Amino acid sequence: MNAPSVFGRLIRNSGLLTQRVTRQETGSGGGTTLGEVYGQFQGLPGLRGLWYPGSVDNAGSLYDISGQGRTLSVGAGAPTVNMLNNNLAPYQFYGGGGVHTRPSEAGLQISGLETSIASSLRGLTMGGWFTVNNTGTRYGLMQKYTTGTNQRSYALWVFETGTVPQFYVSSNGTAVTTIGSSVAPLTAGAWYFIVGRYVPSTSVDIYVNGVKTTNTTTIPASIFNTSTSPFDIARFDAGSLLVGAMGLGFLCAAALPDTLLTYLFARSRALFGV
Questions:
Q1: CA 214/CA 30 separation, integer angstroms
Q2: Would you state the pLDDT for residue 30?
């Protein structure tokens, strides 16, 4: 056997292996790119808003990437954009005084019975990638929900007892149907894919990193869709501001299937180190 040719093949193979590893690392460990992740969410059925950090204007407003123009303005504090430690994905940091908000409008007043959505998909799904800086603290993630004036519609938040994600919907602005995640308490500083889903007359569900918890008891036929509450990211009710971050947030006027939610988690988790 010709020794130089053997060494030549080893060198070439080593170079190819290096290229493959580099491509995987650039794709955050699993070949997933930031553009692919964002693109997955842009095609969600019934999408009403998609917000991810990076696309902010001079005032810090968070742009809606769905194409429907639901820009979220800074309602308080000074949210800032930063990068994950892998320098592959940005996140929106909320330091406990920052909120992104938008006044109520028809596209946010979701009943779950929208006739533009096939009957098999009707409902509501909301959520995204979040992290909290502390445990044992009440934090808002996403909502259209005000208790004081009985303008509750839907909310995704973290309950301080157990640091457990919660999902709420209301049928009339007052009564609330709830579900809390059954997974272990959130760990401060860790990233979680947290999603709430409402299926009319069937269930309210919450997903945390792919683990689903369900409530099927006395589920309302529709969500209160004349609420005048604003739509917020990083706030629950009138207070409970998030100290933590959002890597991506979405709102759909549809009940996304389990398979799709599992896929979204699986394809995006590597970017967030999960």
A1: 30
A2: 56
Identity of residue 255: A
The arrangement of strands across the sheet holding 177-180 comes to: 73-76, 99-102, 231-233, 139-144, 154-159, 164-169, 177-180
Strands, E assignment, the chain: 47-56, 62-64, 73-76, 80-83, 90-95, 99-102, 124-132, 139-144, 154-159, 164-169, 177-180, 192-199, 203-208, 211-215, 231-233, 243-252
Please count the other Cβ atoms lying within 10 Å of the Cβ belonging to residue 77: 16
By three-state DSSP, how is residue 183 classified? Answer: coil
Instruction: Please name the CATH architecture into which domain 32-272 falls.
Output: Sandwich (2.60)
pTM (two decimals): 0.89
Q: How many other C-beta atoms are found inside a 10 Å radius of the C-beta of residue 181?
A: 26
Query: How many Å apart are CA 90 and CA 50, to the nearest integer?
Result: 15
Task: Kindly tell me the burial class for residue 194, based on how many C-beta atoms sit within 10 Å of its own C-beta (0-12, 13-18, 19 or more).
Answer: buried
At 8, list the tokens.
């030549």
Please state, in angstroms and rounded to a whole number, the distance separating the CA atoms of residues 164 and 157. 8
Q: Please write the tens of the pLDDT for every residue from 137-170.
A: 999 999 999 999 999 999 999 999 999 999 999 9
Give the tokens for residue 191.
């990233």
CA distance 45 to 122: 10
The span from the CA of 132 to the CA of 138, in Å, is 10
Comparing 52-61, 167-176, 244-253, 256-265, which segment has the lowest mean pLDDT? 52-61
Alpha helices (H) along the chain? 3-26, 34-42, 258-268
